[in-house]
Here is the input.
Amino acid sequence: MAGLIIKDIQKSFGKTKVLHGINMEISDGEFIVIVGPSGCGKSTLLRMIAGLENVTSGEILIDNLNVNNKEPMDRNIAMVFQNYALYPHMSVFKNMAYGLKIAGIPKLEISERVQEAAKMLELGELLERKPRELSGGQRQRVAMGRAIVRKPAVFLFDEPLSNLDAKLRIQMRLEIKSLQQRLGTTSLFVTHDQVEAMTLADRMVVMNEGVAEQIGSPLDVFQKPETIFSAQFIGSPAMNLIKGVTDGQSIKLENGVLLKCVTNFSGEVLAGLRPEDLLPDKKGEIIIQIDMAEPIGASTILHGTLKNSDIKIVSMVQGLVDQKDMQKEMSFSISPEVIHLFNRESGKRIN
Amino acid sequence: MVEKKGISYWLTHAGLTSGVLILFFPLWLAFVASTVTNEEVIHPPMPLWPGDKLVENYSRALIKGDSGQTSASVARMLLNTSIVAIGIAVGKIAISFTSAFAIVFFRFPAKNIFFWLIFLTLMLPVEVRILPTYEVVASFGLLNTYSGLIFPLIASATATFLFRQFFMTVPDEIIEAARIDGAKPMRFFIDILIPISRTNIAALFIIMFIYGWNQFLWPLLMTTDTSMNTVIMGVEQMIGGQDDVTPWPVVMAASIMAMLPPIIVVVSMQKLFIRGLTDSEK
Here is the structure.
């Protein structure tokens, strides 16, 4: 019921077009993450849904109601900002109650709702404090409490975790996820962090330069990236892209290496090889001259060059590889199913 | 801060102390002069220690002024000055706060032109526009009234500019959060903008109160009725012309009393003042 439909949304600032027509249907209770590099238009899209930016063309429907010309307060949404945007002179309680007070809700109910949200967020002890007396994580909780008490149809999160330190970010990520599941409120979450996107989303939207490159579940996007952009943006370290030519059943890479792959396309392509799909194999066809190794604990990232070429390639192997034991050359193999093939001109997926 | 030790510690304090002494000496002289008889003031050498006429001189100044020759009683003048200074400070803050609100938070045609017009008036001090202002005030029949003393001094480009600079530091997100919470502009103004500007308002109040208190030229021009005199000009009027004998102890007592209210305001609002000028609570 509380779905959100976005029909061909476009946005221009003066002559610069920042959104080129976004279409999305979000069903009730879904957690959608919009992910993309800075300047891709993801925040603009969220702010248009919130009603903080005008819509140049297209339609936004919340609960099947066109809200294009409605004020933010009348859209039945709540928003959580990156820098919390708490009112510095109000106590935690007043911060959370302010919207309800303006809406003219009776005092008793306001207090009940705030208490309930505070309990949920473990803010009960802090209700009389001022924002400046709270830590970053607590402030972000207050900001979320302010959104929860309004019982909106849609939550909008604008990079809410970017100002927190790494440890707290992971903890808050889990809290947001479990809170959203408990409340069952449709949520839109904007981030540039792919890990947040992968872990939080029911479905994610990969955006680039005002275009939704791919909309799908995190695993779909990871396993079957539709475009070169989403292939490279999701996954760390990023996917290797190597030019090659296919003949319907195998691919000949630029340096002459022949690999089996799954396709019926013949012609010039870009082959995408995920670093973690390259498996060390003494008899492997892919021979890499290792230039540098980055041990990151559970695994090691190897930067190198494909033999007989100057193509840079990255691979990730399990465990630690000691610098001393590292061979100058290592062979890898890759299974045919995980080779992603893209059209060189359009950047679209082929297989 | 590096803590100084040994000789440089004492040198610093010696420097500060002598500075304070030099600054306070005239004030001390004025105070001494206000506690002795006129003869003692006029005949050199002037005494350096207070005499025994303190109560007499001060009560005479407070109640009778300079025995009713050219000025009102100091009590009356202090009342006038307080009304004028508070009126100017409150008026300036009200006007500049609202105009800065309009300039920063609303988009309207020729907004920048309006801002620069306000800004331009910074370049025209009271003295430059005093004749046309006098003409306007006189034709409104406001000579010798509080309104006439207050209104021409209320418009303030400086305060508008300061508030504008402060408002521009208010994060956009707070404004947007308020919009999502459903706060209309006036609601935002009252519930959020005024409370977060509290310290800035206090700082400006002090500056503007002292500015209003120290006005000299404008009250001198437009008050002909001694009962409307302000204390700063009143003190000047007490000093007699060619033939009059100036009752110096009474004049000095009036001066000391004229100095006290600004000191009280500054001391009592000092904390807010410093916070208003230094930290931003965000």
Q: What stands out?
A: The helical segments of chain A are 42-50, 92-102, 107-120, 136-148, 166-183, 194-200, 218-223, 228-233. Chain A has a mean pLDDT of 90.
